[in-house]
Q: What sequence folds into this?
């Protein structure tokens, strides 16, 4: 028994001396409970909403104020015409538009009925459903507290719900772009990080050192096959999305493919950066999978709207590349948007790619020396 306890004590000492093991044992559970506890929130919070008021009367203003004062929505802008609805929804900040018909107040007081249209962004079905449900509940409460006392007990505001881009609210309109984003960054970053780390771990890096190739040439030679194979993978995924799920590509296909190639290049350079800070294949796999998969799923806007997150997580999500590509692929595929709606996200991904290349080449030189 004494020998057994001594052996157990030795194992404890090994564990406490290994920082990476302690991080896995204690750091990961703490990080996951904080991330899951704060990020996964299905309630609507600070959702962008715009108004198209064709009436401009006292009652329409009261209903607008009641929607905004509920605490669930943030007013993004006042629209001038129906033509502005598609434009503001494509920008992404506005999740729904509330439209008051002409003579809204007069119809409510005179005829006892008036219509309000709730036009939501159907590219995010879960969020669109919650927003329309919340807005409808606020309108029903308005009917009891304001409309009926002002215009008679039979007076009612009738909400009419419409969904842009995804009228049937099919869930795979949200999941397919998100899964494409997740698959690409995991495959590209994982494979490139492992392939370079394997060279160092197996001792074959010395053969590359004596070759006339420069570090940049070595890096490009490593990532080029994965770039081509990943692009073919994208073509297969897009074809399956159209054949199996009937998801159309409403925007420009060349623009979508160009943005996808940029994202693949960024993911590959990120994998190279991971390889330069990893000493073994196991470490590279751990960083690639754990360090990229959870943030991509939870903090990129793939499933949980970013505006629902605490401010600290919103700031943290701004450094996660998938956040920007999800906006790009949804805008092009689902909304049919052009480059003018995605240039900011494209610029961010380009800057990240350049940054990863510069840091990777510097670290690679250092490790070679």
A:
């Amino acid at each position: 028994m004494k020998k057994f306890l001594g052996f157990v004590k030795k194992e404890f000492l090994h564990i406490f001396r290994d920082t990476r093991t302690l991080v896995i044992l204690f750091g990961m559970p703490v990080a996951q409970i904080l991330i899951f506890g704060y990020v996964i929130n299905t309630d609507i919070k600070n959702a962008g909403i715009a108004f198209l008021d064709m009436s401009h009367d006292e009652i329409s203003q009261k209903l607008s104020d009641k929607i905004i004062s509920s605490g669930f929505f943030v007013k993004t802008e006042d629209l001038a015409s129906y033509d502005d609805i598609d434009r503001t929804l494509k920008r992404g900040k506005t999740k729904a538009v509330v439209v008051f018909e002409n003579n809204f107040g007069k119809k409510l007081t005179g005829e006892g009925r008036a219509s309000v249209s709730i036009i939501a962004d159907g590219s995010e079905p879960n969020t669109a459903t919650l927003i329309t449900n919340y807005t409808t509940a606020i309108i029903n409460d308005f009917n009891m507290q304001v409309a009926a006392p002002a215009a008679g007990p039979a007076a009612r505001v009738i909400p009419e719900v419409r969904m842009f881009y995804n009228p049937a609210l099919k869930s795979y309109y949200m999941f397919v772009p998100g899964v494409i984003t997740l698959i690409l960054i995991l495959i590209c970053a994982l494979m490139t990080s492992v392939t370079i780390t394997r060279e160092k771990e197996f001792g074959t890096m010395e053969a590359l050192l004596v070759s006339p190739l420069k570090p940049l040439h070595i890096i490009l030679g490593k990532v080029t096959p994965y770039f081509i194979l990943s692009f073919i993978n994208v073509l297969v995924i897009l074809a399956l999305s159209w054949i199996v799920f009937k998801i159309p590509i409403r925007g420009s296909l060349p623009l979508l493919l160009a943005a996808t190639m940029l994202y693949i290049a960024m993911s590959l350079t990120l994998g190279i950066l991971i390889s330069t800070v990893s000493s073994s294949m196991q470490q590279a796999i751990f960083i690639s999978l754990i360090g990229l998969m959870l943030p991509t799923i939870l903090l990129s806007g793939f499933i949980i709207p970013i505006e629902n997150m605490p401010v600290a997580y919103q700031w943290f999500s701004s450094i996660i590349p998938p956040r920007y590509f999800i906006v790009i692929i949804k805008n092009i595929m689902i909304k049919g948007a052009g480059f003018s709606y995605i240039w900011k996200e494209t610029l961010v991904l380009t800057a990240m790619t350049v940054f990863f290349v510069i840091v990777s080449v510097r670290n690679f030189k250092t490790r070679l020396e």
User: Anything to note?
Assistant: The first strand starts at residue 47 and ends at 53.
